[in-house]
Amino acid sequence: DKIGNIQYLRQSKPTIALASPTSENYNAGTQELIRWTVSAANTGNIGWEKIVFDVSGSVIITSGGASYTIGSSPDSEQTDGIYMSTTTISGGAVGVQLIAASSMEIWDVDSNTQVTGTSTPFLVDQATATGTARVSFVASAEQQVSANTTKTYKLLGTIQQGSGQIGTSMLTKIASRSTTATSTVYADVAATTGTFVWTDRSGAGDVHSAGSLDWTHDFKVSGLSTPTKTLTR
Hints:
Elements: E1 14-18, E2 23-25, E3 29-40, E4 46-60, E5 67-70, E6 81-85, E7 96-100, E8 105-108, E9 113-114, E10 117-125, E11 132-145, E12 150-159, E13 169-173, H1 186-190, E14 196-199, E15 215-216, E16 229-232
Parallel strand pairs: 2-16
Antiparallel strand pairs: 1-3, 3-12, 4-5, 4-11, 4-13, 4-14, 5-6, 6-7, 8-9, 8-12, 10-11, 13-16, 14-15
């Protein structure tokens, strides 16, 4: 019995795919954490403005040393970067910063231009899921993908703890967390746990904006969750 179930008809839809090798070497300095594509169906343009990455794993800083877990509970209040801690850290002490949020960038690979973010484009949530840093990025303006075309993007970050020993692994993916459909204004969707906030640009009267009721999230977006990109030693 489907009576009462809300259904949304989209003018177009995105498909997301991992474009990185699934595994590369872990090193110090600026590294590509993940590369992905966003494709628009041939029925119309789409746009996106927010995306969330899940980063997990563990890093061994010194030979024979302890393993630091990304997103451990001692780091739950930290939003300015990806942190990691060992089981020996206690009493509310903060662990080691692995990547500062200020060092992160998203680039449009096809045009070789950086995607401009808001005044604080990257925020890191290490409180919601222990062992995972959820890194959210908000663009300063809607990023459009034309009908029947594909754009490639990459996430960069500067790894501070570059002397990772054998056994180190850092994993990045775009997850799928939303479980129900929606279609509303951008701000309302961006405030949810959605990992990809996008629009089919079908606003009433062919007028589309952040305030039109044509924004939605990752629910049933093809390709999500993506495979994991791993940096390893």
